[in-house]
Amino acid sequence: MRPRKWCGLAMVVALTATACSGGGGERGTAADVGPPGRDGFPVKVADCKGVETTFAAPPHKIVTSNAAALEMLLRLGVGDRVIGTGFPPGKGTLPGDLGARAAKVPVLGKAVIPKEKLLGSGADLYIDTFASMGGMGGMGGMGDAPTEEEFAAAGIRHIYLASTACASMAKGPQRDLSGVEGDLTRLGAVTGTAQRARELVAGMRAKVAAVRTALADVPEGKRPGYFFFDFDAGTKQPMALCGKQVANAVLTQAGARNVFADCDGDFKPVSWEDVVAKNPDWIQLGIRDRGDAAANAQAYDQAAQFLRTFPATKDLAAVRDGRFLRIGSERTTLPGTRTADTVEEIAHTLYPARFKAAR
Question: Could you tell me the sign of the dihedral formed by the alpha carbons of 286, 288, 291, 294, in that order?
């Protein structure tokens, strides 16, 4: 991601005057709007169109649109403030005790939260991952969304995760994890957990920096072509992962070359002829977590078997040689600290000799 182009769209938080200048790396996505008070408040957050929301104090009744925003809040240590979520994480999706804590959060919708239920939830903050609400575009058409006026009438402030919600509006591709880092930083500021957010971001940066150092001398033209196969999006017409999607940053930082990085937007339907023409060196079998290890393994097997038997793909070298990565869709295409873990996993798979000493 190129911060100078992205910052005009990203959420604005009163944090640091150098957030968009980068200072030697493609880092922040926040812009300075003046110093916060002694306790960190007030905090101003702007949506993808620049409309600001001011927080005089941390919210205490939060609803999240999906598991990605919920996981961020759990890692920030404010899961007890979440009173509901849509698109809940499946059983076993989140590592460690995060899953147990997530299971305690009321499910307001197995998919998009119904409008009436969201507006009547009693929330004082709604965190939207895909800008599906309020006519922001992105994952539009996902149910009857409240308007900003209806959110205001219900006393619910409405903010977005910029790395996904603003992605389709950005002028350039996402090439590093600064968008995800910015989301964590903003949520930390809004919830009064800025220090914890800094720790999470530092951990992500350390992992990605180690990968970047190991691959520093690999020329762009020598990086292996990589196709993210979104098996759950259907097999009749493949869905290409484009440059503005978070996963493009994951692949880029892992030393891969996204074969569809040049398509505009975040996702785009393509043809199998397009995939074959790209002739990727590696294929990620991107499945969505089934909530069960055996079910996940079966889904990965089904995705691989489809590629091995489908006439258009069975003769691709990557398919013949079994160069598949079994990595879930969520931790590749959605923002969160685990995007850095995915960078590590992909890099270690593509360049095993360079990470042999680290094993």
Answer: negative
Name residues of the chain where pLDDT drops below 70: 1-38, 132-143, 357-359
Residue 58 to residue 191: CA distance in whole angstroms = 5
Contacts of 202 (CB under 8 A, 6+ apart): none
Q: Do 186 and 164 form a contact (C-beta atoms < 8 A)? A: no
Q: Please give the Cα distance from 355 to 211 (Å, whole number).
A: 9
Length of the chain: 359
**pLDDT (tens digit, 9 = 90+) per residue, 67-89?**
999 999 999 999 999 999 999 99
- Point out which residues pair with 135 in neighbouring strands: none
Phi and psi of 45, rounded to 5°?
-125, 130
| Alpha-carbon gap, residue 343 to 209, rounded angstroms | 10
CA distance 243 to 247: 8
Structure tokens at 217: 């001398």
Look at residues 104, 109, 127, 96 and name the one whose alpha carbon lies nearest to residue 191: 127
In sequence order, the β-bridge partners of residue 133 are none
Determine the Cα–Cα distance for residues 318 and 329; give it in Å rounded to an integer.
Answer: 19
DSSP 187-203: HHHHHT-HHHHHHHHHH
Residue 93: what pLDDT?
86
Tens-place pLDDT, residues 34-43: 345 557 899 9
Contact 54, 13 (CB under 8 A): no
Q: Are 229 and 316 in contact (CB under 8 A)?
A: no
Give the gyration radius of the chain's Cα atoms.
Answer: 20
Ordered by where they begin, the domains of the chain are 3-206 (3.40.50.1980), 217-358 (3.40.50.1980)
pTM for this model (two decimals): 0.88
Other CB atoms within 10 A of residue 114 CB: 14
